[in-house]
Design goal:
mainly beta
Length: about 160
């Protein structure tokens, strides 16, 4: 009986841990920070991560951070987003994408409005984004991307 009780408690704690980690449930009016991570550049052309394919060239980030809040707001700040190793910035605009659930389906990847791309400063490659996106529910293990207007990623949360 004692062993059965211990096993039941252990499984209960494990279930609570699994359910409580890595899940994002966007709620209107909520403003709790769910993700706060540095950005890393694309190491090699075409690298696929969390269902999002990389751009056609490697990119680097001097400094970058992305945050995701419980109301779906995404805040991205990046400095020095440039081609690697050239150090040039050929893209005038970008988009922001959030991949949930490993990007298992197209519904798990949400992108910012294509009609309102995010400007990238020239020649420095600086960008600021602060908007709310409608995330799938649940959104497990979110990854935030800075992408080309066409969708290939330049940088992602680490």
């Amino acid at each position: 009986m004692n062993r059965t009780l211990r096993l039941a408690v252990a499984f209960g704690l494990l279930a609570a841990f699994v359910v409580g980690t890595g899940s994002v449930a966007a709620k209107a009016g909520g403003n709790h920070k769910l993700l706060d991570a540095d950005l890393v550049g694309l190491p090699a052309a075409g690298t696929v991560f969390a269902g999002v394919t990389g751009a056609g060239h490697a990119w680097s980030v001097e400094e970058g951070n992305a945050k995701l809040f419980s109301d779906g707001r995404v805040l991205v700040n990046v400095e020095g987003l440039v081609l690697s190793p050239e150090g040039t910035q050929p893209a005038a605009n970008a988009r922001i994408a959030v991949s949930c659930n490993g990007g298992a389906t197209s519904d798990d990847i949400v992108r910012s409005d294509p009609l309102h791309p995010v400007p990238l400063s020239q020649p420095d490659g600086d960008l600021h984004f602060n908007q709310r996106l409608t995330l799938p529910s649940p959104c497990m293990n979110p990854v935030i991307f800075v992408t080309s207007v066409g969708g290939g990623w330049f940088a992602r949360t680490a």
